Amino acid sequence: MELTKKERLLIYIGVVVIFLLSVLSHNLYKWTNYNDFIGIFTPTNESIFQHLKIIIYPTIFYYLITYLIFNRKYEIAANKWFLSALITIVVTSLVVISMYYTFHYGFEIESMFVDISSLVIGLIGSSLICAHIYRFKENIKLSYIASLILIIAIAVLTSYYDVNPSHVDLFYDHQNHTYERVTE
Question: Which residues in the chain come in under a pLDDT of 50?
Fold first, then answer.
């Protein structure tokens, strides 16, 4: 199945929508007076792990809602669509983590510009990979159920480690000197 103009457009719009949802969710926990439920889906401290939530949950939201709204109209291939969501989560997370550690420890640079750029680079890179899969991989054998199971596993593990953070640098909030949720 060839990538239609509509599917390509939805993938590229996803970059903008996921970015905007990510920016919005960055401070949502604080704006809701440290609401525990909101904290499941948004960063609760300044650790790199907590910032992965601004990739994971907006991506899940965008791809699921878009599929539910446009599937019948555009006949979106579920196996490729949910694989695209999985790729977006994994690739963008890897880019954000890699750039953070490279700049933070390699060059001793802490910069909001670098952090935001890593999110944008990850989202653009993952969208190009997704478009490539649609365009050139006719017979993707991975079922949409497998992609959904992996996405759900990532979300469940994210929620688990939110409440039970490991005591490694990925989970450490260097700004507030804690592994735990910040509540003020």
Answer: 1-2
